[in-house]
Amino acid sequence: MNRAPVLVSVLVAVLLGGCTLFKGKVEPVPAAVAAKPAAPGLVDPNGTPIERVPFKVGVSSATVEKMAKQQGCTGGQGAGLVTEAGPVEVYRMRCEDGTMRGKVFMARCELRQCVKM
């Protein structure tokens, strides 16, 4: 005698009937929540949001700020570290005044020797 169909039906009945073991009102499961839309801001051409990097001062920030000033980039918070601190670092400075107004000045520093990117 084949017991597989009987075992399957008993298993299904136990699984479906298990919900009645809880006393009281069973709350319905909410539908899947849609992904929260990104805050309005910059997006790339594919529609992917551009991540904002928080401002962080590095050991060569002052050097990069002097280089930026020579290129006509002044104002703002100054030169912020974009990469992790280490032997090779990348700095970014937003130009709010001067001849480069509205542009970004970037420099790469290796062992405190900085070069404009």
Number of strands: 4
Largest sheet entry:
4 strands, antiparallel
Low-confidence stretches: none
Beta fraction: 15-25%
Q: Secondary-structure element order, as H and E? A: HHEEEE
Q: For the record, give the distance between the C-alpha atoms at the N and C termini, rounded to a whole number.
A: 80 Å
The coarse overall form would be elongated
| Rg (CA only) | 30 Å
Number of helices: 2
* Global structural class: alpha+beta
What does this structure look like?
This protein has 2 helices and 4 strands; from the N terminus they run ααββββ. It is an alpha+beta fold. It has a domain at about 60-115. A 4-stranded antiparallel β-sheet has the order 1-2-3-4, with helices on one face. The N and C termini lie far apart (about 80 Å). The mean pLDDT is about 80.
Fold topology:
Elements: H1 4-17, H2 61-70, E1 80-81, E2 88-94, E3 104-110, E4 113-116
